[in-house]
Amino acid sequence: MSKNSAKKIINDPLKCADELFEGLVLAYDGKARRVGKRSIVMNDLRPDAPALLIGGGAGHEPIYHGLVGKGMGDGAAVGDIFAAPPPDIVLEATQAVNRGKGVLYLYGNYAGDIMNFDIGAELAEEEGITVKTVIINDDVCSAPPSEKAKRRGVGGLVPVVKLAGAAATQVESLDELARIAQKAVDATRTVGVSTKPGSIPATGAPTFELADDVIGLGMGIHGEKGVGLIPMCTADELAAKMIDLLFADDLPLNAGDEIVFFVNSLGSTHMMELLILLRAARPLLDARGIKVHQTIVDSIVTCQEMAGVSFSITKLDAELKALWDLPCESVGYTKL
């Protein structure tokens, strides 16, 4: 390992995904179980109900698989580090969460995930399991509003999974679950920035280069380089830039609207920095007349030791607010 490589307390770098998955199952203290190669499913599932299956690559913990739980995902299909779960894992997870009312796939907008989940859906439907898909694409920096289908799924997947998970405890049909999940996606936007790249455990090498005097704008959570660079600046200046980008998008946000505001560390950015950014951002939201129904400040959507932060906004109407207020419990996010 070179002197510039990221130090990690691991065993075999090629077994990280399997070993972290084994640890994750243990972290659920018997409330969830391992299924097949690398799927995790809750033990206590509402009978005769549509199922919510989430998933994606390892290396972003606690998402996606740490968002399985009460009022969250029913199960998750887990891929290798920064890699989509293969179709056989998607299928095993689908079979395990299905209770006769179909399964909703909910995951981020990445080509590998789309391909493998689509194949998994085809295999499931051959077995008589109805599958619908909602794709999370909240990253406003990765494509303009006219090309939303190209946007990545990043920090916004946390509020989206929470809202869809709440809906899955109540609705009776797969169509209704898909409708609410899509509504949550449509109401969510994220802006992310990075000050230091993450790394892949197998190599220890950074996923991209970033000079000390710049900030990467709109990086991907798999270590993709950002879409642009801005000069290094203070927390107050950065918060203003990020809020301006969120409000420049096509999500209508007007005085009196209520939101969930999620300030997320991408891995190694400390709570100190998140709170300083929150201190700068909240007055900007207040000045626009936006009401923050709940603030989340945490490290939930990560990219190994990447330094950086994302701001996510989810606009709440009466339906989404009622779902948000329901409790949830998981390793990655819990709401009392």
How does the SSE layout of this entry go?
Elements (H helix, E strand, L loop, with lengths): L15 H12 L4 E4 L3 E4 L8 E8 L10 E2 L4 E7 L5 H11 L5 E6 L2 H16 L4 E6 L20 H12 L5 H13 L1 E9 L17 E4 L10 E4 L3 H14 L9 E8 L5 H17 L3 E8 L8 E10 L1 H7 L4 E2 L6
Parallel strand pairs: 3-5, 3-6, 6-7, 11-12
Antiparallel strand pairs: 1-2, 2-5, 4-14, 8-9, 8-13, 9-10, 11-13
Q: What is the molecular shape? A: globular
Q: Mean of residue pLDDT?
A: 95
- Total number of helical segments? 8
Give the beta-strand count.
14
What's the SSE pattern? HEEEEEHEHEHHEEEHEHEEHE
Report strand %.
15-25%
> Any idea what the CATH superfamily of the domain at 188-330 is called?
Dihydroxyacetone kinase, domain 2
State the secondary-structure class: alpha/beta
How far the N terminus sits from the C terminus, by CA atoms, comes to 44 Å
Radius of gyration, taken over Cα atoms and rounded to an integer in Å: 19 Å
- Specify the helix fraction band: 25-40%
> Largest sheet, if any?
6 strands, mixed
InterPro entries: DhaK_dom, Dihydroxyacetone_Kinase
Keywords: Kinase, Transferase
GO cellular component, one term: cytosol
Pfam families: Dak1 (PF02733)
